[in-house]
Amino acid sequence: MAEITATQVKELRDRTGAGMMDCRKALIEKNGNIDEAIKYLREKGISKAEGKANRATKEGIIHSYIHFNNRIGVLLELNCESDFVARTDEFKALADEIAMQIAATNPLAISPEQIDPAILEREKEIAYNKAVNEGKKPEIIEKIVEGNLKKFCNEHSLLGQELISDSTKTVKDLLTNAIATTGENIQIARFVRYQLGGE
């Protein structure tokens, strides 16, 4: 049986909002596999963050961030369920971290599903032609294209991106952790990124 570390327990707790003992038990049950442990907690009804994803988010803030060189700016709408949470310093700090992420990475959309299909089609074609030109076998080309597309979607959608402040976590993990901490559903509604001289 795999040894369960404190780091694994913390990661599972961050991602689900479940208690430490429940997280430890789930990891032991699933031999240290985080994704399986998340599934286990959800099936047992213990994972809190996942269950809040469908609740209405009618409160929140419009947050502005101007990069230190005054050449990049971001306007972000971050929603939550109550005005009480929206006014907290933690919620404002979360908005600031997400806005800085947008300033640094210039994502195409919030989620992979929102990326323009024409862009995805172009990326598919590029990946396919590259694989053919490299002489890859036809039977593995489809998997290569699929892998490249998934990587592209993660790198260019905000939720799929690794955090600039911590590459072991994604923006989605950051939101999940905030949902678990506040006890409310939190959603990125929309954003605009401005760059001096940009389109």
UniProtKB/TrEMBL annotation:
Family according to the record: Belongs to the EF-Ts family.
Protein name, entry field: Elongation factor Ts
Function: Associates with the EF-Tu.GDP complex and induces the exchange of GDP to GTP. It remains bound to the aminoacyl-tRNA.EF-Tu.GTP complex up to the GTP hydrolysis stage on the ribosome.
Gene: tsf
Pfam family, one: EF_TS
InterPro entries (alphabetical): EF-Ts_dimer_sf, Transl_elong_EFTs/EF1B, Transl_elong_EFTs/EF1B_dimer, UBA-like_sf
Record's GO cellular component terms: cytoplasm
Region feature Involved in Mg(2+) ion dislocation from EF-Tu, mapped onto this chain: 82-85
Keywords: Cytoplasm, Elongation factor, Protein biosynthesis
Native source species: Cloacimonas acidaminovorans (strain Evry)
Entry's localization field: Cytoplasm
Domain Translation elongation factor EFTs/EF1B dimerisation positions: 24-197
A single GO molecular function term of this UniProt record: translation elongation factor activity
